[in-house]
């Protein structure tokens, strides 16, 4: 696969992601943040619906991402700030209904 083909696939996938979650996906796809990659995958896994509660209460403890999934009370350093930067997790700030929730710039 060429870089151009990969970029086209990434752009097509990004276009299907609700805008408020797109920034985390794009950060993940830059390959610079494992935290963003885990977060983006978990957001996708639950279909971008009721993300905080669905991921926090994930019922597949056999998933390789389960121990690192975001939105836990004691997430091991997987917080993403409003601009996609890695920050210490602040659970309420990332809630979907929060005005400061993670969004694409
Ligand atoms: S930890 Fe749960 S929500 Fe995250 S990818 Fe795995 S199964 Fe999906």
Structural description of this entry:
The chain has 105 residues and is mostly helical. It has one domain. It is built from 4 helices and 2 strands. The protein has a two-stranded antiparallel sheet with strand order 1-2. Strand 1 and strand 2 (86-87) form a beta hairpin. Helix 2 crosses helix 3. It binds iron/sulfur cluster. Iron/sulfur cluster (SF4) binds at residues 41-42, 45-46, 55, 58, 60, 63, 65-66, 69.
User: What is the count of helical runs?
Assistant: 4
The helix content is: 40-55%
| Ligand set | iron/sulfur cluster
Please state the overall shape, judged from the principal axes of the Cα atoms.
globular
Rounded to the nearest angstrom, the radius of gyration is 13 Å
Q: What structural class do you assign from the helix and strand content? A: mainly alpha
Q: Extract low-pLDDT stretches.
A: 90-105
Largest sheet: 2 strands, antiparallel
Please state the average pLDDT score.
80
Secondary-structure element sequence?
HHHHEE
Whole-number tally of structural domains: 1
> What portion of the residues fall into strands of 2 or more residues?
under 5%
Distance between the termini: 29 Å
**Number of E-type strands:** 2
Secondary-structure blueprint of this entry?
Layout: H1 3-16, H2 19-29, H3 34-45, H4 51-56, E1 79-80, E2 86-87
Bound molecules: iron/sulfur cluster (SF4).
């Amino acid at each position: 696969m060429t870089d151009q083909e990969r970029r086209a696939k990434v752009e097509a996938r990004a276009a299907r992601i609700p805008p408020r979650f797109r920034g985390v996906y794009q950060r993940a796809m830059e390959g610079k943040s494992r935290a963003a990659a885990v977060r983006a995958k978990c957001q996708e896994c639950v279909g971008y619906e009721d993300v905080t509660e669905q991921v926090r209460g994930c019922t597949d403890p056999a998933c390789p991402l389960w121990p690192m999934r975001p939105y836990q009370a004691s997430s091991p350093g997987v917080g993403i700030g409003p601009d996609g930067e890695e920050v210490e997790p602040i659970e309420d700030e990332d809630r979907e209904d929060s005005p400061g929730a993670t969004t694409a710039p």
